[in-house]
């Protein structure tokens, strides 16, 4: 089902309000709310003006591309409906400079072509010079099926705007701007795909829906039907299909770019139709770029990935490819120069490639970074044999208790505590068994801390790593250093130091139903009496006492009924001490 939930339901108020928001973010612009026109406050009379527009619902297209360097004005209709010719006429005659002429770059939809056509005819009758370029970059529906309707304009259109807007700002004439826009438009192919239709605020629910396991290839940016529906394939298969529609020279129904030359250079625009998570967009970009490279030997000169032209909150994306051509009448300027040209819009989110340094292969911090990672020796030493024996026994106990810890965490947490503890214990155990334990106890503790953090990850990884790093710091505090062997008193002092370090990062204290309820009694007892076995017993009692405590922090806070289950983290820590103590 396509959701009909929205924050704003009245479509007219929605468009008027959204358009009014643009000058808030970009104070170089003004808005004519009545005519839904966004325009630059400064009209540069010695330059060609470029305008665009169309239905609302495709934001940031087009109003957010108004600003120096791209569009001089944009005219918006209602959601998915063309603006009227009188709105367009207002823009042409009173919102942009017209001394050097005006270029309209619009998309190939019947309403837009008619209204912008009519608007420009009226403006010409009033003495203005106006040229119009219509972009139809979509290859989604092939020649046969699209018939008289022709190719629609979709996200590739913004590449025309970016390039021709920069050209106009840098002094191209009206005829040059028009010819350039046509040249760019001819060399763009785009195709989209969607998981779902979109719902227009204030309208009836969408009746046409895709099945849970279907993707529609070639769906338009107004819910228009695409070329086919496929069962959700793997992303690589989907991307292969899309690229084939864009580039296959043997596709009789498409092949809009004709034969490809190996020396051709390209620009890639991956566009979010509005509702795809940026996380998924990253994976899609990765797949598209690798498929272009491996199957077509295409390595784009510029890659734009983001939200450029939406279909409201569309759950889909489109791929546009622009083949770079030389500009015959302006040999000192390239498409890339114009794409990289500065602009003052809030909508264009391309990289600032002008500042890129593509010659260096390495950053010049690398040697310092390595130095920072090296741990300085402390001059202390310790009984490695005894350390390994005791710690290994503790770790073995934790590994054996995995099922028990998991059982508790299934009740009070999300069930992964046992496996996380086991993972950490196994990693340290293999570190010890591989004979990688350094001779210096500070270095050893630091490396164990790093091993635990890497193996456990998440909150528990961080907690243990802070504790063990604090332990290493505590050892380093021991004076005077050189040659001194770490004995019981020093281990205890370092452990107390570690607990203090942990306390500076967490508000958890004994009684809060956390692993502190095991740590605290152990360290407290062993520091006072030196009796490791008794300390381990107190740690286990502490862990068990958490069963009747209310959760104040961490994973269990949101669980309603803890069923008298002890805190799994505390049990894990106490289990370690239990195994550890048996070697004394
Ligand atoms: C736009 O669509 C019309 C039919 O509506 C078609 O004749 C024309 O070729 C299309 N233009 C472009 C640039 O694709
Ligand atoms: C490679 O490209 C050709 C031509 O477009 C296409 O037929 C083929 O399916 C593609 N193969 C892969 C693995 O993408
Ligand atoms: C180190 O510990 C082992 C095992 O507990 C013990 O046998 C050995 O004597 C200790 N070595 C030193 C130098 O204290």
UniProtKB/TrEMBL annotation:
GO aspect biological process, one term: anaerobic glycerol catabolic process
According to its UniProt entry, the function of this protein is described as:
Catalyzes both the phosphorylation of dihydroxyacetone and of glyceraldehyde.
Query: InterPro entries given for it?
Result: DhaK_ATP (IPR012734), DhaK_dom (IPR004006), DhaL_dom (IPR004007), DhaL_dom_sf (IPR036117), Dihydroxyacetone_Kinase (IPR050861)
Query: PANTHER family recorded for this chain?
Result: DIHYDROXYACETONE KINASE 1, TRIOKINASE/FMN CYCLASE
The UniProt entry, under Gene3D superfamilies, shows: 1.25.40.340, Dihydroxyacetone kinase, domain 1 (3.40.50.10440), Dihydroxyacetone kinase, domain 2 (3.30.1180.20)
SUPFAM superfamilies assigned to the protein according to its UniProt record, in alphabetical order: DAK1/DegV-like (SSF82549), DhaL-like (SSF101473)
Q: Where does substrate bind?
A: 55-58, 112
Gene Ontology MF terms: ATP binding; glycerone kinase activity; triokinase activity
Fetch the NCBIfam families from UniProt. dak_ATP (TIGR02361)
- Do you know which PROSITE patterns this protein is assigned to? DHAK, DHAL
**Can you say what this protein is called?**
Dihydroxyacetone kinase
Family of the protein in this entry = Belongs to the dihydroxyacetone kinase (DAK) family.
Which organism was this protein described from?
Ascobolus immersus RN42
Q: Where is the DhaK domain?
A: 10-348
């Amino acid at each position: 089902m396509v959701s009909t939930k929205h924050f704003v339901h009245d479509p007219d108020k929605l468009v008027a309000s959204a358009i009014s928001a643009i000058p808030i973010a970009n104070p170089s612009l003004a808005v004519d709310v009545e005519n839904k026109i966004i325009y630059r406050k400064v009209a540069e009379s010695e330059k060609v003006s470029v305008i665009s527009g169309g239905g609302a619902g495709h934001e940031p297209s087009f109003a957010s591309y108004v600003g120096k360097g791209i569009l001089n004005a944009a005219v918006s209709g209602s959601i998915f409906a063309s603006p009227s010719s009188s709105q367009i006429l207002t823009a042409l005659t009173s919102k942009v400079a017209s001394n050097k002429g005006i270029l309209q770059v619009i998309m190939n939809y019947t309403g837009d072509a008619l209204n912008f056509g009519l608007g420009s005819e009226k403006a010409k009758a009033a003495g203005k010079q106006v040229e119009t370029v219509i972009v139809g970059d979509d290859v989604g529906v092939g020649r046969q099926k699209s018939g008289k309707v022709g190719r629609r304009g979709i996200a590739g259109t913004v590449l025309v705007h970016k390039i021709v807007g920069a050209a106009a700002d840098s002094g191209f004439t009206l005829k040059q701007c028009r010819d350039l826009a046509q040249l760019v438009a001819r060399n763009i192919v785009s195709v989209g795909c969607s998981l779902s239709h979109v719902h227009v605020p204030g309208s009836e629910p969408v009746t046409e829906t895709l099945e849970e396991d279907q993707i529609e290839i070639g769906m338009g940016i107004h819910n228009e039907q695409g070329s086919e529906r496929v069962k959700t394939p793997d992303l690589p298969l989907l991307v292969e299909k899309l690229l084939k529609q864009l580039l296959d020279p043997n596709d009789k129904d498409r092949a809009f770019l004709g034969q490809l030359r190996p020396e051709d250079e390209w620009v890639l625009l991956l566009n979010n139709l509005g509702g795809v998570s940026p996380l998924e967009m990253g994976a899609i970009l990765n797949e598209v770029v690798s498929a272009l490279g491996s199957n077509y030997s295409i390595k784009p000169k510029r890659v734009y990935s983001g939200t450029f032209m939406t279909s409201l909150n569309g759950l889909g994306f489109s791929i546009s490819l622009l083949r770079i051509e030389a500009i015959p009448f302006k040999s000192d300027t390239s498409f890339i120069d114009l794409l990289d040209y500065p602009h003052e819009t809030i909508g264009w989110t391309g990289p600032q490639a002008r500042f890129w340094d593509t010659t260096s292969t390495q950053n010049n911090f690398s040697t310092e970074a390595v130095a920072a990672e090296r741990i300085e020796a402390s001059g202390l030493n310790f009984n490695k044999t005894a350390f390994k024996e005791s710690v290994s026994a503790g770790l073995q106990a934790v590994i054996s208790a995995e099922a028990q810890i998991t059982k508790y965490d299934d009740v009070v947490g999300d069930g992964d505590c046992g496996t996380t503890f086991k993972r950490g214990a196994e990693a340290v155990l293999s570190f010890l068994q591989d004979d990688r334990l350094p001779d210096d106890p500070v270095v050893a503790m630091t490396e164990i801390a790093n091993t635990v953090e890497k193996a456990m990850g998440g909150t528990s990884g961080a907690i243990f790593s802070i504790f063990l790093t604090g332990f290493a710091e505590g050892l380093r505090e021991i004076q005077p250093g050189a040659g001194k062997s770490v004995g019981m008193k020093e281990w205890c002092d370092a452990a107390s130091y570690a607990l203090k370090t942990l306390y500076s990062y967490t508000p958890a204290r004994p009684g809060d139903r956390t692993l502190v309820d095991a740590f605290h009694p152990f360290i407290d007892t062993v520091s006072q009496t030196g009796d490791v076995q008794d300390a381990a017993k107190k740690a286990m009692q502490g862990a068990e006492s958490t069963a009747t405590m209310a959760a104040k922090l961490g994973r269990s806070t949101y669980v309603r009924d803890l069923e008298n289950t002890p805190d799994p983290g505390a049990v894990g820590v106490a289990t370690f001490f239990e195994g550890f103590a048996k070697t004394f």
